[in-house]
From TrEMBL:
It holds the Pfam family X8. Residues 373-457 form the X8 domain. SUPFAM superfamilies: (Trans)glycosidases (SSF51445). Residues 1-20 form the signal peptide. It comes from Carnegiea gigantea. The keyword Cell membrane does not apply. This is glucan endo-1,3-beta-D-glucosidase.
Length: 457
């Protein structure tokens, strides 16, 4: 971090502590505890890590009984989640909602300090329309059950991704998708009435990575210095990309008449590694993003955003671990603060009081690799699922496999499953990469800069 920025941030710490003591009592920085890995520490060890990192809140993607039991008496506030697949039933039958609350809340509360219930995750755009339509009713049912038990300190929310927006730039033009409104409007009414948050999964990494020519990396990493953007619609001045994204949602809500719903960031972070063709995914940037984010949110929590100054934004970092079973491009498996072994990828202080950290490795990939890359069988691939995957791929390649890999054909030699698989992966990826298919294939494939053979794709 440059010395000037350190000086400015230290100054704001001073202000925060001199006139904002009440805010330093509760740490509003949480951690998402995702468990999509086959090599992760036990819930017991994981909670120890989360405590030692001094997080204020832990957010689960389920309501795992063992984890909820272990969280009792830890002082950590907790967010649990209704699975997307449970939404419809909870909405359509109140006794199912009651049972859900009994089994997943009352069984642990108040010893386990459950403070948030997330109903579904990123339901818009991914899930079936039935789930989307049922969302608010499910939230209402859960809320009613809690009220009947005289529980008033648990907020109900529904994390949305930025895909719920049809326009997010400039921020003052922020608009929700027209076809989302039949649920977004009742959702906002519910959040407004219950004083809950609009939970947003928001990753400046994605717009930056899509458009690194036109968005400064420093702007995305909160180190723009004197870089700023003035929104022509509102005249507000932005010094970082996250504020722009948050305000696009603030403006979209305001256009629907909701000017007082606060945002909580249910997920944010920066990938610490990724595929060759993904720029900027490295430890340097991940540490810089998360450290600067924490300084913004924890050290001076009432900073808010240009459109909503003075408002605290509870913020959940994504994620505790690198999770090796997540699908998609390489970045998806590299959002962690910790290796699966429990050792940190870089040091981080969730209280926002630490300014001096060990120097970070120099970023090597802030631009995507520009040479040719090939998608081949990964070096340590588990071959047992390969056969069916290959036949499936070759079917979708309309004869390409037969034409190239048959005896005597151009790519027949060397005759090995490894080579033929690499051929099929490369051909498939070459065909579908532009429509967003990652080179992953259940973890069997990875990108290489080394031409796997004389047979080119
Ligand atoms: C609601 O769920 C309960 C418990 O699963 C079941 O007994 C009841 O028949 C359901 N009611 C309706 C209307 O589906
Ligand atoms: C859609 O939701 C399911 C869980 O319900 C999740 O496993 C999957 O990754 C999601 N897909 C996308 C593209 O977000
Ligand atoms: C913002 O929205 C207004 C009204 O829809 C439109 O006229 C204007 O061009 C938009 N601004 C930008 C920069 O897209
Ligand atoms: C970057 O900005 C230029 C000039 O406004 C525009 O022509 C170009 O399409 C932009 N690039 C991307 C990837 O959006
Ligand atoms: C601020 O802007 C000046 C020029 O306008 C530039 O020389 C300087 O490097 C900038 N500082 C930072 C921290 O970006
Ligand atoms: C939001 O809630 C407040 C307080 O209950 C109420 O006065 C206001 O009308 C609500 N706003 C909307 C747009 O429903
Ligand atoms: C390989 O994958 C199969 C399922 O496809 C699984 O049963 C097996 O345990 C895996 N082997 C290793 C070493 O991971």
């Amino acid at each position: 971090m440059d010395p000037l920025l350190v000086a400015i941030l230290s100054f704001s710490t001073f202000i925060a502590f001199s006139n904002g003591v009440q805010f330093s009592k509760l740490n509003h920085i949480g951690i998402n505890y995702g468990r999509q890995g086959d090599n992760l520490p036990s819930p017991y060890r994981s909670i120890e890590y989360i405590k030692s990192m001094k997080a204020g809140i832990v957010k689960l993607y389920d309501a795992d009984p063992e984890t909820l039991k272990l969280l009792a008496g830890t002082g950590l506030r907790v967010s649990i989640m209704v699975q997307n697949g449970e939404i419809f039933n909870i909405a359509s039958n109140e006794s199912i909602a009651k049972k859900w609350v009994r089994d997943n809340v009352l069984a642990y509360y108040p010893r386990t300090m459950i403070r948030y219930i997330m109903v579904g995750n990123e339901v818009y755009g991914n899930q079936t329309l039935t789930q989307w339509k049922a969302l608010v009713l499910a939230m209402q049912h859960v809320k009613n059950c809690l009220r009947n038990h005289n529980i008033h300190n648990i907020k109900i929310g529904a994390p949305m991704a930025m895909n719920v927006m049809s326009l997010s730039f400039p921020p003052s033009n922020g608009t929700f998708h027209a076809e989302s409104l039949s649920t977004v409007v009742p959702l906002l009414q519910f959040l407004n009435k219950t004083s809950s948050f609009f939970f947003l999964n928001v990753f400046p990494y994605f717009p930056w990575a899509k458009n690194p020519e036109n968005i400064s990396l420093n702007f995305a990493l909160f180190k723009g210095g004197n870089l700023s953007y003035t929104d022509p619609g509102s005249g507000l001045v932005y010094t970082n990309l996250l504020d722009q994204m948050l305000d696009s949602v603030h403006f979209a809500m305001a256009k629907l008449g909701f000017r007082h719903i606060s945002i909580a960031i249910s997920e944010t972070g920066w990938p610490n590694d990724g595929d060759l063709d993904q720029p900027g995914a490295n430890i340097h940037n991940a540490a810089t993003y998360n450290r600067n984010l924490i300084h913004k949110m924890a050290t001076n929590p009432t900073l808010g955003t240009p459109a909503r100054p003075g408002v605290i934004i509870p913020t959940f970092l994504f994620s505790l671990y690198n999770e090796n079973l997540k699908n998609g491009p390489g970045t998806e498996r590299h959002w962690g603060l910790l290796h699966p072994s429990g050792s940190p990828l870089y040091s981080i202080d969730l209280t926002g009081t630490r300014y001096h950290f060990e120097p970070l490795p120099k970023p090597q990939n802030n631009r995507a690799y520009e040479g040719q890359v090939w998608c081949v069988l990964a070096r340590f691939a588990n071959m047992s699922g390969l056969g069916p995957l290959l036949s499936d791929m070759c079917r979708q390649l309309d004869g390409t496999c037969e034409t190239a890999l048959g005896p005597g054909k151009a790519c027949y030699e060397p005759v090995s499953l490894t080579w033929h698989a690499s051929y099929a992966f490369s051909a498939y990826w070459a065909k579908y990469r532009d429509s967003g298919d990652p080179c992953y294939f259940n973890g069997l494939a990875s990108l290489t800069t080394i031409d796997p053979s004389k047979c080119r794709f």
